[in-house]
Design brief:
Elements (H helix, E strand, L loop, with lengths): L1 H47 L4 H4 L4 H9 L2 H4 L2 H35 L4 H19 L2 H46 L14 H35 L4 H8 L1 H16 L4 H44 L2
Helix pairs in contact: 1-5, 1-6, 1-7, 1-8, 3-5, 5-10, 7-8, 7-11, 8-9, 10-11
Amino acid sequence: MHQLNKEIATLYKSLKRKEKIGIRLDNLKQLIAQKELQINNLDKRLAKELADVTKLEGRNLHSLFQTVLGDKAQQLEKERQEYLNAFIHKKGAVQDLAELKKEQLMLEETYSSQFNIEYQLEKLLDQKEIQLLALNHDLETSILAANKRIINHQNKIEEIKQAITEGKHTKKILRKMVMDLNQVEDWGASTSKRNSTAKNNQLIKKVERDTMKANKFLQRYEEELTDLSIHFRIDFSKQINTLRNFLDEFVDSLITDWIIKRKIDNAMHLVEHIFDKISRINGSLEQEITKTKLFLESEEAQKQMLLIKEK
């Protein structure tokens, strides 16, 4: 009986992992469709606008802003601002789509390799039921139910820890962005005609790379929070919406800084705000782990009492 219980517990954990993969695959299908539609719409917008896309490919962020926004009068043209926004979003969307499809392929292989877990678990549970009926013993039924609740608590803690880890990775990139943004000196029309230093250009390139990285990590963080919402009904819908708009708001802040501030200010405050938001969410997740551990300890204590009292 003990060996059978161990096998059931192992398969139950595998089933929960498979369910999580299934949820993620369903979400990926929607995200890929949305991303393909977004790229298609951006292509249409870019095709109607004033610049030749091929001439902009490969330019760094500073050069891109200079080329598209042009002089002071041109900067205030709504069409130029929208074109720049669309171009940067297209670049990010193409990268995102490639990452999403890569993840989808990997998860589909993992999911298909576990195709018969449900059947295996059902078969073992049938064996368990036959043995319990033969023994006419209520203890095994109670222990089995307790084990199931314990596994659920353990899975919840594991998934919350995964979300916290993604949040920490994102914060690391955002912290790096703040440090680099704080050192950028040449930004905006008043300085655009000057020759940028090699150090400044390097900083801007790093910011551009890290912006795309941060957006990717934020998407992963969002995925983990969505999984928690579906699996364990921990609602982070408001926070998810804030994180989801990061790239839109960051590009818009850069354009505002270029035209109005003449230095990177709004964009840096936005990054700091998202950093603090993740810190708050992770703090809430840590609290959820603490509460779940108390439930876990209670279940384990009740299971122990069942075993102690059995004669």
